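FORM 7B: Structural annotation worksheet

SECTION A. Query
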Amino acid sequence: MTPVSATMDVIRVLVVYVPEGLPVAITVSLVLIAKRLCKKYDVMVTKLTTVETLGCVSLILSDKTGTLTENNMVVTNLVVGGMIHSLQDDRRLSCGEKCLLRGGILCNAARIVQNEEKQEFVGGNGVDIALVKCALDLGLHPQNIIESYYNLAEVPFSSAVKYSLSINCLATNVTDSDGIGNIQMGHFVTIKGAPEIVIEKCTRMMDNDGHIIDITPQMQGTLENAGIELGEAGYRMIAVAMLELDQNIFSPSYEYDI
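SECTION B. Predicted structure
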C-alpha cells in the first residue's frame, strides 16, 4: 500500500465513522500542502483557504515587468498638456512635469528611510513607491517636498471612488530647491487616482511650461487619445490633479473633518 492510498483510507475512515473529524483532516491536508509549497516553490501561504482555491486554478496570467510577481512598478511616461513624454530620454524635466511629480509625492503614503547601507521605501502601495522613486531618480528631492508642506487631512485610496486625496499647506521658511515653481501659498487639495475619475472633476490643466489652460473639447480628445495609446501598450495610468482652496473660506486655522 502506498502512502497516498493509506492517507485516503484514513480520510475515508474519518468521514464514515467520525464525521466530526473531516474538518481536522482537511486542515491537516492543507497544512501539508502549504508546507510543500513553501519548501519546493518558496511560497508562503498565510490563509489555508488560499491553498484550497489554488487547487481549482487551471490558468494563471502574469506579466514580465514585476508588477504582479514583485509588486515593483516603474514610471516610464509622463503625460503633460496632452503630450506623452518618455522618461527614457536624457533631458531636463519641464515645469509641468515637476509639478505633476510634486502632486504625486504629496498625495502619497510612501516614505524614504535612510539605513546604514541604502535607502528603503516604507508604507504606501506599488504606485506610491514608484512615484517617489521616479522623482528621486530624476533629481528631485521627495523628502524635501514632503517636509515643505503640512498634511492637514487625507482620504486613503478606495476602490469605490478610485482615488486618494490629501489636503496640504505650505510650511514656513521653505525654499523651492528643486525649481518646481507654482507654489501654492494657501490650502490646496491633491487628488490621485483613475484618469477617467480625476479628469472628469477638472476644468483646467497645466501645460508643459507650467501655464494653466482650459480643458476644451479638443483638449479632452487629446487626453483621451493619449490614454488610449498608453492603454493599448499595456501601461497602468494614474492621473494627478491639484486645486488651490479659497483662502477666505479655508483660513490657516481651518480644521477639516473628513
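SECTION C. Observations
Residues 22-41 form the longest helix (20 residues). The two ends are 66 Å apart (CA to CA).

SECTION D. Sign-off
Analyst initials: ____
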